[in-house]
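ingest -> fold -> write
write: protein_1
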Amino acid sequence: MTRRFGIYLHVPLCRRRCRYCDFCSRTVDDQALIDRVAEALSIQVSRAEPLFGNTLYIGGGTPNLLSAAALMDLIARTRERFDLPTGAEVSCEANPAANRDPGYLAALVRSGLTRLSVGFQSFDDAELRLLGRLHDAGATDIFGNARRAGVESLSVDLLYGLPGQRPATFRRSLERALALDVDHLSLYALKLEPGTDLAAAVERGELPAPDPDAAADCYETALEVLDDAGYRQYEISNFARPGRRCRHNEHYWRAGPFIGLGPSAIGDDGERRRRVTDDVAAWLAAVETGAEPAVELETPRESERRIEFAMLALRTREGLSRATFRRRFGLEVEAAFPGLTPHLEAGALEEVGDSLRLARASQLVADRILADLFN
């Protein structure tokens, strides 16, 4: 059976760095540099080993800073180079402050785009200012324009657990998102990453530290509101209408092989893991001179593979299948991870058919439970 790879392309450009962001991204207001990065990504795609692709995800940064022609070229080259099958999911992240007119989006659909993931983060203007976003809560035309352009699936990202955020405000953001008829929501708890402007402001006492109890209330609110609205949770942070899950991310969570191109992108063929340099200038110079960008190589041990597989599976609502684990690693789940049994007996984990998964209440402390299971 042909192995198919998830393909990720990283666009490391933004108009302005958000206060909470530690992703690999360079601020830019120079169209010439944007065009150079787009061309370098196209070159990398053309030079890549022609493996079989499964899904394509273009992330960032802000991919919709690229011209429609540049993104169309990237999608077309990727589809050809990696033999993406008919009907393959092609996703692109988008910032509502960048290119969002109907003509731009329709051009992407013509090239094969099926899914748009809009990083809105909040529908509250005060929260958007706190986060350092360039758009305001009224910049919602991208959603209607995407529908009119023929985008099959629309997703929106929201953040919760912000300094001073009230659960009632987060509920209003959820309701605003649902009113826009989105198919999918990704809800992420804010993490104060070291070196970010927001973390520094909290450390200086200019902002209150995020309140974990308020964050938990926000999450519980989301579970209630989205379930009532017909969105089904399929991973700790992700909710979708039937048939609108993100297939690219599901490929990751099932520990499928993937390719990463662009600065900081990660690839993993099941044996070796490759991380591209996050130095955008060095990456660009290498590609433009015909050299290979610097990469870090890692060969995870079998025990590490088992842990990664189990942790990813337990984040999903399908859970960790005993039969799948046995086929893949030749071990029973409980033999590989004796720490599962006490959590199962305590109710933090639950059995659903052949699988183990986090109980709903345990999702609020998933990171702590998973770390305890596998340390």
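write: protein_2
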Amino acid sequence: MTDSNVLSIAQHALTLAVAISAPILGAGLVVGLVVSIFQAATQIHEMTITFIPKILAVAAALTACGPWMVRQVVDFTTVLFQSIPTMVR
């Protein structure tokens, strides 16, 4: 296994991690921003108000994107395991 193989696998793994986490983090970010704007407009500054909408948004994102996320990880793992014989010197 050469250095370029290791770097390629690491780059692909990091790219996959970012792609998989993006829908969940994006949903939490959007909901947090909307709740913050609502709190600023109504001058309600309670920290616990943001938790329930964020939890619901993350749960909805996991429900909607969960199968895609699992399929991406399984495909990456399958390709990685299948390439093991070609990596050995």
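write: annotation protein_2
The mean pLDDT is 92.
The radius of gyration is 19 Å.
pipeline exit 0
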